Amino acid sequence: MEPLLDPCNDRQVTSVEPPPSLPLSDEAMWSDMDVPDWEVVRDHLKKEGKLQKEQVMRLCETVLEITKKEPTLVHMEEPICIVGDIHGQYYDLCHLLEKAGKPKKINYLFLGDYVDRGIFSMEVVILLLSLKINYPEKIVLLRGNHECRNMTQHFTFREEAIRKFDEEVYQTVMDVFDAMPLAAVVSKKYLAVHGGISPDLKKLDSLESINRFTEPPTDGLFCDLLWADPLDDTEALECDYRDNQDRECSYMFGRKPVKKLLEKHDLMSVVRAHQVQIDGYKMHRWDGESSFPYVVTIFSAPNYCDYYSNKAAVLILKDDKISIKQYDQSEHPYFLPDQIDVFSWSLPFLADKVITMLKSLLEHGITDEDMVDEDLESEAVSKVLETAERSKKVGVIKMKVKSVARMHKIFRTLKDENELLLQIKGMAPDGKIPKGLLLEGRPAIRDTFKEFAQAKKLDEVNERYPK
Ligand SMILES: [Mn+2]
């Protein structure tokens, strides 16, 4: 497809290919009648190309028909790549698919949290749906705690879907989320879920009793599968379950209930996602350093929110072996926070300049000598006012200078806020992090561990169940 034209030849960043000029054509997309050419879709989206609404609707409807028929607990076999949270990081998803291998050769189990936070959530959904239609049995998409109306409304996906398409597309994607299975058993050895186990999960059969075709509830088995976390390594040995204070919903679980469930079903580990890890994964070895992990956490969004400096990882099960593949962030196109357009974003800067000019003009109007160039709000103001008072034009000038000073202050603040937004970037999609805290910001010396710890601390509030 022809890239976007550049008639004046004034494209600023020539190293980046211009986006395609038109949405993907049906001929290019549905090469094989009812199956989308997922590689064409992938490359088109990678170049920031658009899809037509009807194409996305058709993807959703086709996948809905497939997932609807899947059991709540899916069974899968090796070789398989298990993928953790992606959170709208489309370019990293493309990278991991390259790295882990073609779905023709290896199965894929995605553990949920495809959307929110990252700004390419719609692209992630489109690519995953295209893959699912191509390989309905080899690719399974489990539901994460973000695959629901409540979370996507609170975070960024709803807005993104409506901006890129419309409300109907958003609602249809939600219907697809409603149909996603909740758990998988892989190679008869691993239980895979997004969050974790539940006090209500005595045996795996109970999963089939869940009515999953709905918005997830705020407690009970369904909720825990999506929200629970493992306890930290020391507490896990002493405690079975305790309230999950970090999430303000569901539980944290320890060794004993995991062990019991695994033994009952002759399984080896619980594989789950849901928590960012500095290395992209964590082995919860609760029987000592060299023991086999009871729980494995996998997180597949590198440099989460463009801020955490974490590595990402996927888990590969192949030839009876378990291995981890790590990867770093891939470059992605730059977007202003909250997807503000450049014009709106830069208005305060322009206004600030105009007012500074106005200020100089006024100052010249009063006297040529004792003018100070800098801030009107401080000494300069009183000086200007004093001078003006001495002259005859007191009233008028005084008012003019005052109102200009006030406008100057307003636009300074707006400008500063926009600059601050750039630093916060994707961290606080809804402004929920105190900006002051973030401004204290990154440690002066680059220290990945410190940065990761700090990002986690600042981002704590976004891991909670939104009230
Ligand atoms: Mn999650």
UniProtKB/TrEMBL annotation:
Q: Which residue stretches belong to region Disordered?
A: 1-26
Under Gene3D superfamilies, the record lists: 3.60.21.10
Keywords attached to this entry: Hydrolase
User: EC number(s) in its UniProt entry?
Assistant: 3.1.3.16
Report the SUPFAM superfamilies cross-referenced here: Metallo-dependent phosphatases (SSF56300)
Q: Which GO terms describe its molecular function?
A: calmodulin-dependent protein phosphatase activity
Q: Does the keyword Nucleus apply?
A: no
Q: Could you tell me which residue ranges the Serine/threonine specific protein phosphatases domain spans?
A: 142-147
Which Pfam families does the record match to this protein? Answer: Metallophos
Gene Ontology BP terms = calcineurin-mediated signaling
InterPro entries given for it? Calcineurin-like_PHP, Metallo-depent_PP-like, PP2B, Ser/Thr-sp_prot-phosphatase
Catalysis performed (reactions):
O-phospho-L-threonyl-[protein] + H2O = L-threonyl-[protein] + phosphate
User: What does the sequence similarity comment in the record state about its family?
Assistant: Belongs to the PPP phosphatase family.
Q: What is this protein called in UniProt?
A: Serine/threonine-protein phosphatase
Organism this protein belongs to? Euplotes crassus
